[in-house]
């Protein structure tokens, strides 16, 4: 079965911003999340499709490849490949060909006039980059975006990823620090581009991007849990069960609670890489019932009459 266009999967235009893509992904992830659709194989397949589209379109490099080549960019190793010399002796010929062309076209020209081999010595000076000793230079740093799940960014995790390192695809083990934020970087010294003239290799930098969660958000070190409450409990008061990461607890809801009200639990938020911990904020969303029975409708009509 052919894959659907990633933009169509998320319901966004090809020119959509990253913010619009994240917004669309979050909406669909909440709709198809396996926790909300237990045992529904279609919803699970849709969730995986949406997640795959999000990962590609929020990675700048992968999105560019997808826009140019479509799904073929990620099949059979994708496009690209390694550069190299065509024919034989290409590197030697190119270096010396450029040098001779700069000096007047080769041995038959006037570059060797005046006796001796001064011109020839000058040519080799150009190839060496000057008469002095070449200066050692550090290799280029290479940056890649690594998209991780919201939970992994909060709690930390270890992943094995495959990246192009010095012209070869290599697998590296990545330790994702607990509490890492969007845009923060993980540095691997000496895993970047090769140095020149004996210089050290550059570094590999992984820029972290976090996938949105179905019902959790983050504001700095504060963890926000969006929790749905039926309108009767919100009006009369009661309890609601809250699930946050690996914890479950009962939260008392005061009578008259409105949508958007937050209940703070100090020190229960995200601990960042500096060992600073925020708060947990349970944000209430009051649900309006749909598909009322006739009896329920009559009761609400009676209630409305008393207002």
UniProtKB/TrEMBL annotation:
Domain J, first and last residues per copy: 5-70
InterPro entries: DnaJ_C, DnaJ_domain, DnaJ_domain_CS, HSP40/DnaJ_pept-bd, J_dom_sf
Domain of life: Bacteria
Coiled coil segments of this chain: none
Pfam families for this protein: DnaJ, DnaJ_C
GO CC annotation: cytoplasm
Protein name listed in UniProt: Chaperone protein DnaJ
